[in-house]
C-alpha cells in the first residue's frame, strides 16, 4: 500500500500552469507619436492610464492634449491590455487632440 500512486498529489502536476504561467503575464507595448517611440513593459491587468501618464511626462505633454488609439479605437484610461485583447509587441498611437472647428 505504500506504493500507491494515488497518494494525494496526483491532480496537481508540477508542469501544469500555475498563476497564469501558460500565457505571458507582461507585454511589451510600443507607444508612438510619429516622432518618438517609447517601449513599455506592463502587466496584462495594468490600467493603461499608467502608461499614458508616463508617456506624456516623458514627452512633456499633458494627457488632456493628446489621445491614444489602438487599432483605430480610442483608448480609455481604465482600459487594460486584457480588455483590449492586446498582444506582445502591439502599438499605441498618440495623436494631438484637436480643439475648435465648427
Per-chain topology:
Elements: E1 26-32, E2 37-43, H1 48-59, E3 66-70, E4 73-74, E5 91-96
Parallel strand pairs: 1-5
Antiparallel strand pairs: 1-2, 3-4, 3-5
Give me some keywords for this one.
102 residues, alpha+beta, 5-stranded mixed β-sheet, 1 helix, 12% helix, Ubiquitin-like_dom, Rad60/SUMO-like_dom, Ubiquitin-like_domsf
Overview of the structural elements:
This protein is α+β, with helices and mostly antiparallel strands. The chain has a domain of 71 residues: Ubiquitin-like (UB roll) (Roll), CATH 3.10.20.90. 12% of the residues lie in helices and 26% in strands. A 5-stranded mixed beta sheet has the order 2-1-5-3-4, covered by helices on one side. β3 and β4 form a beta hairpin. The chain is globular. The N and C termini lie far apart (85 Å). 12% of the residues are buried. About 18% of the residues have low confidence. This is Ubiquitin-related domain-containing protein. InterPro entries: Rad60/SUMO-like_dom (IPR022617), Ubiquitin-like_dom (IPR000626), Ubiquitin-like_domsf (IPR029071). It comes from Lasiosphaeris hirsuta.
